[in-house]
Design a protein that fits this description.
Largest sheet: 2 strands, antiparallel
Strand content: under 5%
Order of helices and strands: HHHHHEEHHHHHHHHHEEHHH
Number of domains: 2
Number of helices: 17
Radius of gyration: 31 Å
CATH architecture of the largest domain: Orthogonal Bundle
């Protein structure tokens, strides 16, 4: 692959476009309005087509005005159908989205005969050819798409910085925003205007079909990686930049490996940002599938460890040893889970073993007494407050003993005998 100035400009234009889309996209995701962003990115098409038919040219101002008007009409119609027609939000968006987008396609076909416009370019973008449409600024020749997307990025950044607090409070608590003199409806329609204008700026770069990927996916990926409002914007823009550069490099390097000449940079950008979302979805520290699985495993192993300690304590209470019972059969868990739990307990010096059986150490005995005490206090509490079958008492207490906090412990009372007649171990404080 030989890198040329055209490739550099393609990356710059893609970065500006993706970053501009990511900023309103963050607010859309936080407000749970991703589908509205999708609808607006498609329904501005009739506004652009009408502007083409009226002006007979691709004059940017007419395109922007037409798209913004249709975008606001989309938001108004969705809200009106939802409120007056008592129709669910998704259905209202679906109705407006499909009708206006179909109207846009019909009008676009009419515009083809009168205006120099390629419908495929509008739908799928043509960032590869954006370099050749240049504007002379002094002694500099700059692609028009770079200027348009740069203006969109700066405008979005300016609006969000100026109204940072207002967007934040309306995203999380519109009712609280009203008490502070902020009008959520005004912020809503301003966001719709930003989304429509950004979609217009992005048309020639990624097209109306793929603009939704740049609007929503970087923001959704950032949402998985952080729970801080400001940081989310930074991460979303960073992901958009990686997707833009990685998308173009992938578009020109990967297809030749399989005997093809190349593919669409806009499409490759969407694939790359989708791959980044997949990585975040799996490996996000707080919300990732892998992290959640690890937390579940940790909780499961913690419960098994508690159950082993409790079982050994009860065996000692009865004057028995573990050699008379199998952990696997008593606790109904796999041999591997028992092996992992006993290994950890031994490392913590809570249990030890000789040639025949496991037994509690002094440290483990103290830990086990707390678990058994919690279990039997829960049985006493449940029997007093919610009388039920003794077997059900044991099952309920078996679950609750693992999540007992200090505050909960103080509310359980201080019974000496549980409903089964067993002695409740004394508190370690006594």
């Amino acid at each position: 692959m030989s890198w040329t100035p055209i490739d550099t400009w393609i990356c710059i234009i893609s970065i500006l476009c993706a970053s501009a889309c990511a900023m309103p996209g963050c607010i859309l995701v936080l407000r749970r309005m991703s589908l509205m962003g999708d609808a607006i990115s498609h329904t501005v098409l009739p506004g652009i087509a009408i502007a083409f038919l009226v002006t007979g040219s691709r004059e940017p101002t007419a395109m922007l005005i037409g798209a913004v008007i249709i975008g606001l009409i989309t938001a108004f119609l969705v809200q009106a159908i939802e409120t007056l027609g008592k129709i669910e939000t998704g259905a209202a968006i679906g109705i407006v989205f499909t009708v206006l987008f179909a109207l846009g396609l019909v009008l676009m076909r009419q515009a083809v005969d009168h205006v120099d416009i390629d419908p495929d370019c509008v739908l799928y973008g043509a960032v590869e050819f954006a370099y050749f449409d240049q504007i002379q600024i002094g002694s500099w020749s700059i692609p028009r798409a770079a200027i348009v997307n740069c203006i969109a990025l700066l405008a979005n950044a300016f609006i969000i910085l100026i109204l940072y607090k207002e967007f934040k409070i309306t995203a999380f608590d519109p009712a609280l925003a009203r008490t502070h003199g902020i009008r959520p409806s005004m912020m809503h329609y301003l966001l719709m205007t930003m989304t429509a204008a950004t979609a217009v700026a992005a048309f020639e770069t990624v097209g109306s079909i793929l603009v939704i990927a740049m609007l929503i996916v970087p923001a959704s990926t950032a949402y998985l990686l952080t729970d801080k409002y400001g940081v989310m914007f930074v991460i979303a823009i960073g992901i958009a930049i990686i997707a833009a550069v990685g998308g173009h490099i992938s578009a020109v390097t990967i297809p030749p490996m399989f005997g093809f000449s190349g593919t669409s940079t806009a499409g490759a950008m969407a694939v790359v940002v989708g791959f980044l979302f997949l990585l975040a979805w799996i490996f996000s520290p707080k919300q990732g599938v892998w992290s959640a699985s690890r937390r579940r495993k940790k909780v499961q192993h913690g419960i098994i460890k508690d159950n082993i300690l409790g079982l050994l304590w009860r065996l000692e209470e009865r004057g028995q040893t573990q050699s008379t019972i199998s952990f696997e059969s008593a606790l109904c868990v796999s041999r591997r889970a028992i092996w992992i739990a006993t290994k950890k307990l031994k490392k913590q010096e809570s249990i030890c073993n000789d040639s025949t059986h496991w037994k509690l150490t002094e440290k483990g005995r103290n830990e086990a007494s707390l678990i058994v005490r919690s279990h039997r206090l829960w049985e006493s509490y449940l029997d007093k407050q919610f009388p039920q079958d003794a077997h059900q008492l044991h099952q309920s207490a078996e679950r609750l003993e693992h999540i007992t906090t200090a505050q909960m412990q103080s509310q359980l009372g201080d019974a000496e005998i549980d409903p089964h007649g067993s002695k409740v171990p004394p508190s370690p404080d006594t």
